[in-house]
Each structure stands twice: as C-alpha cells, then as structure tokens.
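note to self — DONT lose this again. spent like an hour looking for the file last time. sequence + predicted structure for the chain T wanted, 78 res
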Amino acid sequence: MTLELISAHEILFKGEAESVTLPGELGLFTVLKNHAPLISVLVPGKVTYRMSDDIEKSIDIKGGIADVENNVVSVCIY
C-alpha cells in the first residue's frame, strides 16, 4: 500500500509500506494492505511504518488526521 506522510510544510514520506501504526483517539491502530476505508483523528504519539524490506521507521506527531482508502494511507500531521 502507499503511505503519504504530509505536514503543512513538506511531504515527509511518500512510498510503499507493509503496515502503518497510528495513534488514534481510542488508542493505537494498525493499517495493513486492503484495510477497510476509514478516517480518524490522530492524537500526540508516534506514527510507525514498516517497509517491504522490514525496516521500521517512526515519527513523533502532535496530532493530525488519517484517511485510508483503496490501499492509500494519507496522514496529515501537525
């Protein structure tokens, strides 16, 4: 699936990811390929993503919004 991590100032990451773990209002949740569509508010925490070569990266966020649809995870953070 494609992950897009976007801030107000720049595109932080755009590429393929095997999984994405996000800090939602009700707790952490993980998105995998073919996940059902959803929109979620994000709270302060870490966005963690694993790429196809098993390298895991994370970024601290203060909050944001995640949109999942058609194997594209768009994360707008602040």
